[in-house]
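New here. Invent one.

***
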Amino acid sequence: MKPNAIIITGGYLPYNNAKTAHGLIRGTERFTIVGVIDEHSAGKDAGEVLDGQHRNIPVYATMKDFFKHTAVQAEYCIIGVATKGGVIPESLRVLLKEALQHRLNIVNGLHEYVSDIPDLAGLAEEKGLTIVDVRKPKKIKDLHFWSGAIQEVSCLKIPILGTDCALGKRTTTRMLTQAMTKAGYKAEMIYTGQTGWMQGAKYGFIFDSTLNDFVSGEMEHAIVSCYREVKPDIIFIEGQSSLCNPSGPGGAEWIVSANASAVVLQHDPARVHYKDMEHYPVMIPSVEETISLINMYGADTIAVTVNTAKMNADDARAWADEKQKALGIPVVLPLEDGVDRLVTVFEKMIAKNRAS
């Protein structure tokens, strides 16, 4: 059985800062989410705050309210919000201390480690509790160099890349994996960030806490391990950042080191500048320019998925229709319309791959 967990979001539940919480609210095979602690959204259902869909996950103002108003037992407290610089501010430290005092284990995906904070680490040890700092790097002996073993992976390998960070690439990756599984195929997801691990993906690595020399090897190792153990029909790979984001370019390894079969590209038509770089004189490349760059790296883009965070649905669908006609590939809105339209695309690719 999955252990019960609560999520703390520091008042940011409705905002993109809480995208880890958003992913867990949408679904996780690793935990059962039984509550969210967020003072600004207290009294609501977390799913309704996120996207209007009731998910029976109540939001409480304080940790004290959770323990007072529910008989449900929790085993874990998960930090569900991204903070500036990935540090753990005093406001969250207070909540974490309270969680430990209530005998909850801690799961942390921030860059700063809870296990490095003496009073919290000491309290956890005193009570026999576990601190899981998801971003803590592996030991050198446990890392892998790229070896070329990727050539033995004969199934489809599809990275979901983006034109920027924080576009919903992980959510789309998960949705595609679930859609192909529902259609009767063996589909697996390779996680590359902390939330993917928290949601229960079995294979992957944490990209931004992996030494650069080992990124290609860890990518290959995750895919090869998945292939050897599961023999899937298709593997979807969660993208990170973007090929051209100057603050953290990412994507080349997803195409070259993973020997990608093709790419799905996620884009936000309303976003002109890179996230949190609005005053830097660089614009996000167009979908067409990004597709050309992906092609130069050696892969075709077979679909575009649209993040509509700052668009109304009608405008987003009009943009999608226009791009679909111009590009000649499917352009879909995952959160509004699902990804089932792409199932037939992958079915044809799988059939062709099996016949080759």
Notes: The radius of gyration is 20 Å.
